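Worked problem 6 (solution included).
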Amino acid sequence: MLHTLSDLMGYSAHATDGEIGSVRNFLFDDITWEIRYLVVDVGRWLEHRNVVLAISTVEKPNRENKTFNVHLTKEQVRDSPDVDTEKPVSRQQEIALEEYFGKLAAWVHRNLDCGPPTPTGRKYPVHSKEDPHLRSARNLFGYEVRGTNGEMGRLESFILDDTTWHIGYLEVKAGKWLLNRTVLIPTRWIESVSWDNCRVNLHHSGSGLTADLQSRV
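Solution. The predicted structure is:
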């Protein structure tokens, strides 16, 4: 099923032993355009800390109840590595996430319906060297989307396929050239992203874009 990513922000996240907070953001790989992690605001439960949860531990979003069910306990969520989700994730942080959630993912498949929780409590180092490919989805909202013949509009959100967790489309508010309509632009059209200039560059002119968001989601 296709979802507008911004609509999923605010969904509640539920561990196996209770609610843990609300989804605030998503981290994706800007080469493959696949969602890798959810960012959950746990509020007062963990002193307003944001936690990062691997997609391998999360079920498909429940649109009716506006929830994400997570195959982790609250203790496992609490012991997840600290990550500054407002910046590109450091390589060391990513290694810590992969190590922690990789072990948890293997445990989940073995013990989805039974057995004691996996051991937790290991502390992970946090450093500052950045991995340029693991990015915050929310931070791209508002970026200029520019085709080969000029600006096409502003990025409002992404369209996600919850079967593959792949971002297939940009949701773009087009300018006057298309009567300010919201259009979908395939991520395969992206040539590069200029992070310094807050711009998504396409290798396509955008001619023939007519698809409304409602017709695809």
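Discussion: The chain has two domains: 2-136, 141-215.
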